[in-house]
Amino acid sequence: MLKFLKNFFYIFLVLAIYKNANAFDLKALTDKIQKDFGGKLNIPQNNSGSNPLGGMLKGLNQNKSSTSMNTTGQSMSGTNSNKKLAEQMCEPSIPQTIKNLPKANVALVEKDFGKKRSEIIKILNSMPSSSDDPYVSSLNTFNGAFETKEIETLFNRFLRMKSINDLAAIRAIGDMETGFNKNKKQIKADALFAYGLVHYYLRDIGGKKNLGIQYISKATKGPDNIGALTVYGAWQFYGINVKQNIQSGNMNALTGYQRAGDKKLNLNTDGPFKGLNPFKWAETVFFEIAADNRNPYKQQYQSQLADARRMNKQVMAELSKSEKNNPKSGWWPFLIEQQNRQHAILDALGENLGLGEQLSELKAQYAVLASKVATDNKLVERMVIINEEMNLRVQKALSATKKVDEQGKIQIANLSHDNEILLLRNQSLLFSLAANLMSGGGFGGSGFYELTKTIGITGKNEKIACEVYTGVKSYASRTKITLPKPVTSENTKFRSKFRKKRNS
């Protein structure tokens, strides 16, 4: 649902741009590049037969028809049918076809790293939040850089859990024989990029840089991977890690951008991309390359890109005029209540894990903001940042703490239960936002500005809650804590006594 709402806003911007500017005819341009480059490059065609920006407009009606909700914001199937919803939200299962793929072999990963299993696990658990390569600055940038559900799900699970077994599974799939199976070929290409990306990203703390580059290079050859095309294209264009080749770099980046556009168009329709994540980085990289003075096609790109930027600025200016949020109505009171519950859960978890003193300053800062947010709801975004920092410390403690006393076990189990309720209520809020949007109800005069802010905050809250869910689950398994049965209704009562008044 969150993905749908984000996509809708993106399409809204594209629609405004496309309506008022000349079409960004990439098909004509790629035909010219193909001709200039001697017809040696394979350029995929869009389903629309036109340019990616224009083709994305088709997604508007598709998105509308793919989501059916009633006016209360609940799915037509009802919330009680969503058994183990928290698990589904936070731990998506690997598609069944994964069973027909090669099994994980940690020994191969040990050979690649030149290290024992325990050493590699330490490396994975100390993974940096960023790197100095501007085109591979964060692994999270690539959570949508795949065209198969198998690898996207496996890679994203690896990002959350840092599991060596998941990395080994990706490694094994990258080595598999595909025969004439088109789907397996794409799965393999995706796996090659994913494994190479991890090695390259970890190059300063134990990963093998050259091995990573080799894998990423392989993933640009047929069938190729959109993430590999984007990264390798940027490297070629700027002469990073590989010999500079401006023509080839531009072509690879453009192809990655086109493929990412095709994927985004079909995320909410039946087909291989349904339910996957968009790959936004491809657009960012291509637009940078398109504007570079060294690009021989800059002038052909530039006028249309300039129009798009100008229209985007106008649209954003119009949206900003709607920044008249009423702090006592609309979605904000519930959002703030959710925010406070999340803070209370993190606070209580921290206390049970011995983090009381470490979290005291953050809790004090939060209390000041919470006392003022009723009259200035923009402060909720700063409250989210505090909760994100608290969560980082809680997650570190969950992975390091070996045991708690019996009372602590009971409290952690109850907090796990409460966190699941938080997740379900978060989901209900997203359904309500979408239902209101579909019905044309608007947002009480605050328009898309309020929509985007609400979605952004709700998305961050869900991320924190999911990390708490998986972190506590792993900790409970290690320390023999019996967790409650899965929560199946958002109306389930909380077990913990939160400091903030609640409506349940």
Task: Give a brief description.
The protein contains 20 helices and no strands. By secondary structure, it is mostly helical. The chain is globular.
Shape: globular
Figure out the total of helices: 20
Radius of gyration based on Cα positions: 24 Å
Helix content: 55-70%
Strand portion: under 5%
- Spatial gap, N to C terminus: 24 Å
Order of helices and strands: HHHHHHHHHHHHHHHHHHHH
Pairing-aware structural class of the strands and helices? mainly alpha
Provide a descriptive summary of the structure in words.
The protein has 504 residues and is mainly alpha-helical. The protein folds into two domains: 81-319, no CATH class; 332-479, no CATH class. Helices cover 62% and strands 0% of the residues. It is built from 20 helices and no strands. The protein has helices at residues 2-20, 26-36, 52-56, 59-66, 85-90, 106-113, 117-125, 149-161, 164-174, 182-201, 209-218, 226-238, 246-265, 281-290, 298-320, 332-352, 356-372, 380-400, 406-438, 447-479. Helix 16 packs antiparallel against helix 17. The longest helix is centred in the last third of the chain and has 33 residues, at 406-438.
